[in-house]
# Entry
Amino acid sequence: MKLQGSTSPGAHPDPWHLNVDLHCHSTVSDGTLAPREVVRRAHRNGVQALALTDHDEVGGLAAAADEAARVGLCFIPGVEVSVSWGDETIHVVGLRIDAQDAALLDGLAGVRGGREERAMAMADGLAKAGIEGAYAGALKYVGNPDLISRSHFARYLVEAGICSDIRQVFQRYLVQGRPGYVPHRWARLAQAVDWIRGAGGVAVLAHPARYRLGETGLWALVHEFREAGGRGIEVVSGSHTQADFVRFGKWSREFDLPASRGSDFHDPVESNYDLGLLPRLPDSLVPLWAGWAEVMQMQPTLADN
Ligand code: AMP
Ligand code: MN
Ligand code: MN
Ligand code: MN
# Structure
């Protein structure tokens, strides 16, 4: 495939075989490795360009960038913004952001603001279901007091022997209709996209297969996202199945949204895919990073799937 006008002069023409991972988490949100450890692990796994995309928070980017420079890995500053769209929570990944941008920082602080109260309400709900001490239990897993999330509760409930794994905790306790679920208003879609674009970044729709929207709802979401200025969609994602890779590859082409690849790594044991260890993007898709000079100067290393 020819990439018209999107590659920089002298760029390598093969973005598909670069090991690019544009979605992962550290202890600054709900991951279990510190930002520097995430970068070292990515490097060990052969990742050539990595974006750290903590939920609603950019506090890990400076350390991650420093470590990346040390080990010789291309670092892309990122964030994953929580958005409310109707009754559904949507995630929008922002990449190549200026992490000092005041409007972005203000916006993210606002989004984080309600988390503690929400966590207390979650603990109340769990207490009513007979699980005491969940707030204190979850806090033991929290690396950033500003960012207590459902993942931290899930880890505690596994530790307490209430469920056998994280997935089971979510199914039984932490999703809509379950005792630990508390509805929450996050950012608006257009707001999140504006913050990201205002900070010089590109907004990418995260893991579209995860949303409980029918085909029509999903269509409306992707349409609105594009209208708002969104310019990418995750296709090869650790939150997707192989069938989702094919399905959202079609959406990427039909909506003319370049395709992203990201493990959504949180933890070596919990996550479906380790950093960088997921299939490459199919040749039929336009990789999101095809026009990124800092990435395209590298030599491809990925084998065909
Ligand atoms: P929160 O931002 O507090 O609502 O937490 C959302 C996080 O919970 C996501 O980013 C995932 O890391 C995790 N999560 C959500 N649903 C599930 C699930 N079904 N199984 C495992 N982890 C999940
Ligand atoms: Mn998460
Ligand atoms: Mn997400
Ligand atoms: Mn994520």
Summary: The pocket of manganese (II) ion (ligand 4) is lined by residues 23, 25, 80, 264 (CB under 6 Å). The mean pLDDT is 95. The chain is about 35% helix and 15% strand. The first strand starts at residue 20 and ends at 21.
